[in-house]
Fold Cytochrome P450 CYP736A12-like.
Amino acid sequence: FIYISRPKQLKNGRKLPPGPHPMPVIGNLHLLGKLPHQSLYHLAKRYGPIMSLRLGYVPTIVVSSPQAAELFLKTHDVVFASRPKVQAAEYLSYGTKGMGFTEYGSYWRTVRKWCTLHLLSPSKVEYFAPVRKAELGSMVETVKKAAAAGETVDISGKVGELIEDIMHKMIFGRPSNSEDENLNLKLLIKEISRLAGAFNISDYIPYLAPLDLQGLSRKLKRVSKILDKFLEKIIDEHEQAVGSNPEEQKPHRNFVHVMVSLLNKPMNPHDEEQEYIIERTNIKAIILEMISAALDSSATAIEWALSELLRHPRVMFGLQQELETVVGRSRMVEESDLPQLTYLDMVVKETLRLHPVGPLLIPRESMEDITIDGYFIPRKSRIIVNIWSMGRDPAVWSNNAEEFFPERFINSNIDLRGQDFQLIPFGSGRRGCPGMQLGLITVRLVLAQLVHCFDWELPDGMLPVKLDMSEKFGLSVPRANPLLVKATYRLLDNRM
Ligand code: HEM
């Protein structure tokens, strides 16, 4: 053990972080398995919080402790603020014309500034509150009917549809089933998460790319073609709408409308940096990224939170008690109630600690050679931050790290917005999630409403401990199997 966990010495006397010995050609790819975040967690226990791997030909550093994450994401943030060029981005981001997969530089800075200002600003998030309220209200009605009929509900599916409906209205300005042609956007986005999150051999052993050994390139091409057709149609429709009513170019319109009304105009006029014109491809890349980021992330967090609550009736009861005190049983939860719901806040933190939606964040790439903590990290290394490991580290969370115990946050200042490196479900630094505000408000509201309006139990008298908690790996990690539940409506009927 002492021998294998020694740092790797390079010829020039520099040492790489410790890590397992790589095999010829594939390096350590074979160690990743079906759930890479879990495999990397076990490897890090052996090799330490800064570990080096070779994935195919790509030097890779895996970061697995809050202290190490702070060094990479805060102290040396600029060096690690880029993203590697990967095959998935070529297809899904129109050759990195979006934000998430784009390398660090003036184009990324411009797009990020533009999106945070026009699409994801606090006032924009606030503007769409009535949409969240209406869609959630109609979902509650559907579940209420199922409850009255004694039916089992696929709550993963229902939450997925709800988030899809909300985001459709925000992004496209219309309901999700109105557009057409048997296009199942939710399924396509799930597929994107899987394809974009997969460790694609073509990215790591480029000369094998033409063989497409995992069939990923073929699938990426197929999915991107279907989505491109859909996006073209949406943009055409919005172009007509903008053209027919130029007065309607208000900043609060849906995302596509805002973008189309600025088509062929500079992204950030008066920018000291290079000027970029908004073209059709930019719009398509940005929309696609927004849908993929928005559809999967919040729904995944909500289904994990409900799963943990079902496994821990004590916590479910505590949350319902808080809701009864703050909201009362004669009405539904409003967004304005959220700041008073402190136990809800702890439940969400605890869920994202044990089930971070993106357990490996989105991979970064180092832009220059650098020495960190005495270890040499070569330029163009891939950096993987394993927040799944960090959430389970007993050195950080004490011996009950594996337990779902929201009370651990009582009297604690740990926040989840990227400043406290024990808990960074939205990443941190320049590349941290720009949709955090929207994501958090959606997760808190939907979870609070479902727990407030219904009592939940597992079907067929299943014991909470028997609930399957298996994961499915992708860019985000949802439940492997949908969560099936029975609901009983619990509000008084004269609710508003
Ligand atoms: C619970 C909900 C969400 C979670 C947990 C989440 C998590 C994350 C994480 C971990 C990253 C990578 C950060 C890093 O590398 O440091 C990220 C990036 C990103 N997220 Fe989110 N996200 C959520 C919701 C959203 C929403 C609603 C949107 C937009 C509509 C969004 C848009 C993005 C984008 C565009 C990036 C890439 C940023 C860049 O590379 O500059 N996210 N998110």
